[in-house]
Specification:
By secondary structure, the chain is mostly beta strands. It has one domain (2-89). The chain is 0% helix and 41% strand. The chain contains no helices and 11 strands. A 4-stranded parallel sheet has the order 1-4-7-10, with no helix packed on it. A 4-stranded parallel sheet has the order 2-5-8-11, with no helix packed on it. It has a 3-stranded parallel sheet with strand order 3-6-9, with no helix packed on it. It is globular, with a radius of gyration of 13 Å. The protein starts with a strand and ends in a 9-residue tail after the last strand.
Length: 98
Amino acid sequence: MENNNGFVGSGSSASNNLAVVTDVGSVWSNASHLHVGSSGRGNQLIVSNGASVMTQGEKRLGHFIGAASNSVLVTGVGSSWLGNGNLYVGVTDSQAGS
């Protein structure tokens, strides 16, 4: 799958969303940023069994006030979340320099 910006649970009311990328050869490619639980709660990204997520921009896990209990799990031989941008965990917009 390819997209510009990826989101798993974007708004404050977005909760308990799940994206799973699994098995060798499976790739989720983001040309820019990937956000997991920007403002919501309990959102998850799971990358497993040799799958890959490519993110060329920022990788954000929880970002705005109200984001809580969001997670990313990368598990299994050959599984990866790669890219050039910074990784931000639990920051507000002003802390990220936006």
